[in-house]
Amino acid sequence: MGRWALDVAFVWKAVLTLGLVLLYYCFSIGITFYNKWLTKSFHFPLFMTMLHLAVIFLFSALSRALVQCSSHRARVVLSWTDYLRRVAPTALATALDVGLSNWSFLYITVSLYTMTKSSAVLFILIFSLIFKLEELRAALVLVVLLIAGGLFMFTYKSTQFNIEGFALVLAASFIGGIRWTLTQMLLQKSELGLQNPIDTMFHLQPLMFLGLFPLFAVFEGLHLSTSEKIFRFQDTGVLLWVLGSLFLGGILAFGLGFSEFLLVSRTSSLTLSIAGIFKEVCTLLLAAHLLGDQISLLNWLGFALCLSGISLHVALKALHSRGDGGPKPLKGVGSNPDLELLLRSSQQEEDENEDYFMAQGQQ
């Protein structure tokens, strides 16, 4: 009877993990293809991103309100001093990362975007070394060389290469390295009480919106004000279709963060990292099949080399955690973190937040 119960528990955990991975894939791959699809007809990626931020903020606020009503515990609200001094740098880096990533879809294919964006792990490692969140080791140097070499091979003589789009997404990956390093440092400040990613998203979105607004005003403001798809619309149906499409993107963006958190809280950050590797492969295969992206043998070899570097990084994190007797806990985090998010999370999230946000560079 005991053996049967263990088998049932194992099968249930496997089914739950598979379901969470598939949910994460739906949102992650879905928003990539959605952004590419929408930017073909709606050439205002910065405005699109700002509306997504507004939707994420609304859903984050709703989630916080629901959790507060169910738990009867007040949610954390930062003072203006802490908000502007400690959250603003992370918000600005996040806004530029997301905004430039979406902007690049005007010029490059999904496959080139996916490959270049995966190099964010490289920049995360570099900035982790600069901020002394990681120690310099020979294995980390090998990881950097594999990812950088793979990126070079993938873009070398690519038939669909576009320098402007590549520069945008590479800049986004560079800023993404700063973004996730700052995010990790932000979450390690236990006195702020932002260990719950929903609280983090709630506090980040307004500053992200404001940080992206000047860029939007310079590059898209005038064109958008004269566009017949928004402010000078002549067909109400077209306006409703555009707004509905933009709102759908906001739902996908929030769902991505929600699914990532559920996957980590119910499994581990290692599961998210491994799932992220296979997600990149699925995205490239879908891009080649559905969008006709042209990928040569050399490009595939470069992608394989890059994935080898990412896989080595994941393996090193797993070995490091096992060698320490478990994942490294957040500095200063108490023993009773607030991690409910409509669903109750497991206690292991306290120990895995740090690795979780390091893993986000693959997204």
Automatic annotation (TrEMBL):
Keywords linked to the UniProt accession: Membrane, Transmembrane, Transmembrane helix
Source superkingdom: Eukaryota
One cellular component term from this protein's GO annotations in UniProt: endoplasmic reticulum-Golgi intermediate compartment
Compartments reported by the entry: Membrane
Any one GO biological process: positive regulation of Notch signaling pathway
InterPro entries documented for this protein: Sugar_P_trans_dom (IPR004853), TPT_transporter (IPR050186)
Membrane-spanning segments: 12-34, 46-67, 112-131, 138-156, 162-182, 202-219, 239-258, 270-291, 297-316
UniProt KW Translocase keyword: no
Coiled coil segments of this chain: none
One Pfam entry name: TPT
Domain Sugar phosphate transporter, first and last residues per copy: 19-312
UniProt membrane topology term: Multi-pass membrane protein
Major subcellular location class: membrane
Keyword Magnesium in annotation: no
PANTHER family, per database record: SOLUTE CARRIER FAMILY 35 (PTHR11132)
Protein name stated in the entry: Solute carrier family 35 member C2
Organism field: Otolemur garnettii (Small-eared galago)
Lineage: Eukaryota, Metazoa, Chordata, Craniata, Vertebrata
